[in-house]
Amino acid sequence: MNDAWVADDGKPYGLVTTGWSMVYGPAGGTVDFDEPNFVQTRAEFRLPGSYTLMLQASDGEKDANDLTVITVYADPNQNDPPEVYAGSDYSGDLAVGGQPGVQT
Question: Rounded mean pLDDT of 17-44?
Fold first, then answer.
């Protein structure tokens, strides 16, 4: 979030509060902001995918927000677990130990 900014006319109180939040992301994806109330902050994304983030600002009377989309790619050096497929499920008569008709 290095190029984000907030501008205000100084009215009514000369104080602006800000905050970052995640609006959309991949299933199970989260974002951790180092300083979620700072305009300039660092974000850490838990999963690869497309994240929509919102920066909100309020001067006490009026609110504004803007969205940005961040795409996070998987680390090509990451050690992913092996993919495993045990075959289709089966239910029916099977012969076990020479005895036909045993159900699983």
Answer: 95
d(CA 39, CA 55): 8
**pTM of the model as a whole:** 0.71
Rounded CA-CA distance 22/69 in Å is: 10
Residue 28 region, left (φ>0) first, then alpha (ψ -120 to 50), else beta? left
Measure Cα distances from 96 to 26, 48, 63, 86, 101 in Å. Answer: 45, 46, 71, 19, 8
Give residue 82's pLDDT band: very low, low, confident or very high (50, 70, 90): confident
What's the CA gap between 83 and 43, in Å, rounded? 30
47-to-39, 51, 103 alpha-carbon distances in Å: 23, 10, 42
